[in-house]
Amino acid sequence: MQANDLTLLHEAALEAGRIALRYWKHAPDSWDKGDGAGPVSEADLAVNAMLEAELRAARPDYGWLSEESVDDPARLAAKHSFIVDPIDGTRAFLNGDGGFAHALAVTEGHRVVAGIVHLPVHGLTYSATLDGPALLNGKPLTPSQRADLIDAKVLTSKLSDNPMHWRAGEVPAYKRTLRSSLAWRLCLVAEGRFDATISLRAAWEWDIAAASLIAERAGLRTSDRNGAALRFNEAHPQADGIVVANAPLHQAFLDAIKPVPQ
């Protein structure tokens, strides 16, 4: 990682926000990507085009992985790579909800070393580097210390309500809430506004790369649903779900979630 990579990501994220807001609430063209991949809009593509042009011009030796770009396997041989989601939470964006984010990360090998998650409507910018604190608008983040699953405030989807995913055959009595942007969910836990976030379906790297570093630098544990460490810039860029919480609560979730056979 270069010393000013975080600054580069920050400036790109702010410009991404400016572009997105030109389309937000102005009925941008959108369509479904098919195969359960969800919607995409002309705004996603405009943000992606800017990010790819600006970031790759600034770091031509870095690999590139984006939700809205054709995957280039050359990234696998690069020492550093960008992993970006131009608009995380496209459904929210298209519904006029401000809970969408721009998630930008730099990896070194298989770990994230710099990350930015920016929500332009809410004026929120979360950031972290591998050797620095997790910040929100320049101020350190302090996560929840809650250790008990019961009544924990958890960001997750309705999929987690299915008893088949839990060892005991029943869903723990936590309080479930959802935000469209997966990156924002991790940041909200890092901020202490929620106690944990889990996803029991596969998670794309571009949704979680930047935010996973922010969560870790805030002092949280991050893993896939089986407890394995998250790795990035993989040939198949998906994690087998996620679990993000403070150490005791993270372990409580791992003890409760039914593991997926490997």
UniProtKB/TrEMBL annotation:
<keyword id="KW-0378">Hydrolase</keyword>
<feature type="binding site">
    <location>
        <position position="207"/>
    </location>
    <ligand>
        <name>Mg(2+)</name>
    </ligand>
</feature>
<dbReference type="GO" id="GO:0008934">
    <property type="term" value="F:inositol monophosphate 1-phosphatase activity"/>
</dbReference>
<dbReference type="InterPro" id="IPR020583">
    <property type="entry name" value="Inositol_monoP_metal-BS"/>
</dbReference>
<feature type="binding site">
    <location>
        <position position="85"/>
    </location>
    <ligand>
        <name>Mg(2+)</name>
    </ligand>
</feature>
<dbReference type="GO" id="GO:0046872">
    <property type="term" value="F:metal ion binding"/>
</dbReference>
<feature type="binding site">
    <location>
        <position position="87"/>
    </location>
    <ligand>
        <name>Mg(2+)</name>
    </ligand>
</feature>
<dbReference type="GO" id="GO:0007165">
    <property type="term" value="P:signal transduction"/>
</dbReference>
<dbReference type="GO" id="GO:0006020">
    <property type="term" value="P:inositol metabolic process"/>
</dbReference>
<dbReference type="InterPro" id="IPR000760">
    <property type="entry name" value="Inositol_monophosphatase-like"/>
</dbReference>
<feature type="binding site">
    <location>
        <position position="67"/>
    </location>
    <ligand>
        <name>Mg(2+)</name>
    </ligand>
</feature>
<dbReference type="Pfam" id="PF00459">
    <property type="entry name" value="Inositol_P"/>
</dbReference>
<protein>
    <submittedName>
        <fullName>Inositol monophosphatase</fullName>
    </submittedName>
</protein>
<keyword id="KW-0479">Metal-binding</keyword>
<feature type="binding site">
    <location>
        <position position="88"/>
    </location>
    <ligand>
        <name>Mg(2+)</name>
    </ligand>
</feature>
<comment type="similarity">
    <text>Belongs to the inositol monophosphatase superfamily.</text>
</comment>
<keyword id="KW-0460">Magnesium</keyword>
